[in-house]
UniProtKB/TrEMBL annotation, chain A:
Lineage: Bacteria, Bacillati, Bacillota, Bacilli, Bacillales
A UniProt-annotated Pfam family: ETF
Coiled-coil stretches noted in the UniProt entry, renumbered to this chain: none
GO MF annotation terms: electron transfer activity
Gene: fixA
Gene3D superfamilies named among the record's database cross-references: HUPs (3.40.50.620)
Annotated protein name in UniProt: Electron transfer flavoprotein small subunit
From TrEMBL, chain B:
SUPFAM superfamilies documented for this protein: Adenine nucleotide alpha hydrolases-like, DHS-like NAD/FAD-binding domain
The protein's name: Electron transfer flavoprotein subunit alpha
Cofactor: FAD
Organism of derivation: Effusibacillus dendaii
UniProtKB keywords: FAD, Flavoprotein
Pfam families membership: ETF, ETF_alpha
């Protein structure tokens, strides 16, 4: 039996965000709030592991009250329970403060609902896009950490060890470690299911558990929200497009243009640098 | 005091660190993490040393590097060749493959002992994994995925870490005032490495690694290097194609040109989304940021999400039949025309020229033999 915690964040769909050309500011109105899609892959994998090994899934989210909707979506997909951690005091958190609150939340989940074996976060979010919250949580809870997971090979329940494939820039790493573990999910991990009708009905009635700072008597107030966040956004701007001196290559036909281009390239240091001045390998 | 001040009204008051800033004078220097696989460095490591040097010079401090691995002394020497003054080296068999716990333990030891004011990592899978753990341990602020790094000079010495936000539509500068060190991960391909100078002098400081294999839960069982996988971030010549190619077949034509030049094939997202080529070829915001010496954009319109991924290339050549395509604004050389005619013509011309120079070399060689021997050859 596994107790799996899935961290989810509700994010504005940044693909839909536009810049107001007059004021150079973000237009957020009408931008849909969605569950960060990597997190849905984390949830999906939790569902698969529950089917295989048994157990339960707790979904947690730190966010403002409307994030309840995101949690309900997770219930409709099959999560057993959902917790919304919400408080004005949490606002303005950077990744250090966010991972602190989420770690405290997971600790409390463990105390109240049984020890946690696996924590999922997404690889990164669509808005903050840092990928730092997962490692932050693992570090604070002293969990083993395996990031960029594209496949869970399996869990040896006897030995309490898990094997996964991590997707790196230059290949795939097969790695095994001990539970409890924190995994960060890639979209290659699985295909997210559609919510079944009974799940949707359950979600419609479901009320997430809500925890505020009051529910964490030992919370260090200096470590939460804006105050607990070392990073400060000092300014933001719309990047200017780089301008370069473009030389248009004219010519009667394709061949003349091609010759003319190659002439230009041959006047640079590229031929010696890349051995173009030597014959090509047969 | 007041009178004195009156005498020199033109003199500006010396800049002071903001009142709310703690005294960080114990923290000095810029430290760069050198990422590698089996002793082969990732080029982002040298790029970060290149940028780190600029920051260190501005702050008048050392540029330092951190090398962790097994049999990696040569990387410490390379780091010096690429600009580091001092390199901290952990060389132990337990450190052969990257694992979060032993690597963060080693990094923490150096950071606690050396007290750098800035620590930089590549924004790679490993760099993010490690930096995220270390920043939480310390604890300190960590700015993710930066594409611009600058510092304010003494006395504030703040790292100005800037990163794209909201799908690259905006940039944001992030500061870390109240904690040290200031940490950032930085994208591969945006900064430039210094030329390698094997004669540069520097100091290598070896650290003992005091962790037993039995204390490390994670075991790397295998690493499946993706042979077919191209490493577009490291490529120096990229021939990229877009929707204008119309299908998967014409990518072969691009591959021919790339092979002739010694480069690799890149692609726009439109081509990747259409399934003509794999994602690992994709250049741009949701693909890779590249910085080759030469970039061909063929049948690519030049959407902003594509431009952010390639605009730092050395020479950009655009081929497009639409004279108003925005890609021409970003290109050094533009050719208006049908790519199906122009690309084979370029390949042909390159072939010809390489063949020709081969002949010229032969002639030159023949001549020199003639001279040395003083004889006559026909
Ligand atoms: C434009 C922008 C840039 C930013 N840059 C930085 C920066 O450089 N450094 C920094 O420290 N902060 C930064 N922040 C703040 C940061 O986004 C917040 O701290 C945020 O709450 C968590 O970070 P993230 O969104 O990057 O999450 P990531 O670390 O990318 O998220 C990884 C996973 O952690 C889990 N997770 C994250 N947040 C929550 C949550 N609230 N509830 C439940 N699960 C969660 C999810 O599973 C998610 O998939 C930035 C914010 C913005 C809007
Ligand atoms: C959140 C987000 C992230 C994105 N990330 C990326 C990214 O990482 N990388 C990326 O590339 N895009 C990205 N995009 C998509 C981007 O906005 C463009 O849609 C995409 O770059 C267009 O690809 P293209 O230039 O190949 O196609 P098109 O815009 O369709 O351009 C095709 C070009 O080919 C030319 N052409 C056609 N036939 C010929 C011919 N026979 N000879 C010569 N020229 C010809 C046409 O004139 C045209 O200019 C992203 C978009 C979003 C919203």
């Amino acid at each position: 039996m596994l107790h799996i915690v899935v961290c989810i964040k509700q994010v504005p769909d940044s693909r839909e965000i536009r810049i107001d050309p007059k004021t150079n500011t973000l237009i957020r109105t009408g931008v849909p709030a969605i569950v960060n899609f990597y997190d849905l892959h984390g949830l999906e994998e939790a569902l698969v592991l529950r089917e295989k090994y048994g157990g339960k899934i707790t979904v947690v989210c730190m966010g403002p009250p409307p994030a309840e909707k995101a949690l309900k979506q997770c219930i409709s997909l099959g999560a057993d329970q959902a917790i919304l951690v919400t408080d004005r005091g949490f606002a303005g958190a950077d990744t250090l403060a966010t991972s602190y609150v989420l770690a405290e939340t997971i600790k409390k989940v463990g105390e109240e609902f049984g020890p946690v074996d696996v924590v999922f976060t997404g690889k990164q979010t669509l808005d903050g896009d840092t990928g730092q919250v997962g490692p932050g949580i693992a570090c604070r809870l002293d969990l083993e950490q395996l990031t960029y997971v594209e496949k869970v090979v399996g869990i040896d329940m006897e030995k309490r060890r898990i094997t996964v494939h991590r997707h790196l820039e230059d290949g795939v790493e097969v790695v095994e470690t001990a539970l409890p573990v924190l995994l960060t999910a890639l979209k290659e991990l699985n295909k997210v299911r559609r919510a079944p009708m009974p799940g949707m009905l359950k979600a419609a009635r479901y009320k997430p558990i809500v925890w505020t700072t009051q529910d964490f008597p030992n919370l260090d107030r200096s470590k939460i929200g804006l105050k607990g966040s070392p990073t400060i956004v000092a300014k933001s701007w719309v990047p200017e497009q780089k301008t370069v001196n473009t030389e248009m290559i004219e010519g009667e036909d394709a061949q003349t243009k091609a010759v003319s281009l190659v002439d230009k390239l041959w006047q640079t240091d590229l031929p010696t640098k890349f051995g173009w001045d030597r014959p090509a390998q047969a | 005091m007041a009178e004195e001040a009156n005498k020199q009204p033109e003199q500006k008051p010396a800049a002071q660190p903001a009142d709310d800033m703690p005294d960080w004078s114990a923290y000095r220097g810029v430290l760069v993490y050198i990422e590698h696989r089996d002793g082969v460095a990732k080029s982002v490591s040298w790029q970060l040393l290149g940028q780190g040097k600029k920051l260190a010079d501005k702050l008048e401090v050392d540029l330092m590097a951190l090398v962790i691995g097994d049999n990696v002394k040569h990387l410490a020497e390379e780091a010096i060749a690429y600009g580091a003054n001092r390199v901290f080296l952990f060389d132990a068999k337990e450190l052969k493959s990257y694992r979060t716990r032993p690597y963060s333990r080693a990094s923490m030891k150096v950071i606690h002992e050396i007290k750098p004011e800035i620590v930089l990592f590549g924004a790679t899978a490993t760099g993010r994994d490690l930096a995220g753990a270390i920043a939480t341990h310390l604890p300190t602020g960590l700015t993710a995925d930066t594409t611009e790094l600058d510092v304010e000079p003494h006395p504030s010495r703040l790292l100005l870490a800037s990163r794209p936000a909201f799908s690259e539509k905006m940039m944001a500068t992030i500061l870390c005032k109240q904690y040290r060190p200031q940490m950032a991960t930085a994208r591969a391909g945006v900064f430039e490495a210094l030329p390698r100078d094997p004669n540069r002098q520097g100091e290598i400081v070896q650290f003992e690694f005091a962790m037993n294999e039995s204390e490390i839960a994670a075991k790397v069982l295998d690493f499946i290097q993706d042979q077919s996988k191209i490493n577009i971030e490291e490529a120096e010549i990229i021939v990229a194609g877009g929707r204008g190619l119309g299908g998967p077949e014409p990518f072969k034509m691009l591959k021919e040109l790339a092979d002739e030049l010694g480069g690799v094939v890149g692609a726009s997202r439109a081509a990747v989304d259409a399934g003509w080529i794999k994602h690992e070829h994709q250049v741009g915001q949701t693909g890779y940021t590249v910085r080759p010496k030469l970039y061909f954009a063929i049948g690519i319109s030049g959407a902003v999400q594509h431009l952010v991924g390639m605009q730092n290339s050395g020479i950009i050549v655009a081929i497009n039949r639409d004279p108003d395509a925005p890609i021409f604004k970003a290109a050094h050389y533009g050719i208006v025309g049908d790519l199906f005619q122009i690309v084979p013509a370029i390949t042909e011309e390159v072939r010809k020229r390489r063949g020709l120079s081969f002949l010229q070399e032969e002639t030159a060689a023949a001549k020199s033999t003639t001279n040395e021997e003083g004889g006559i050859r026909v």
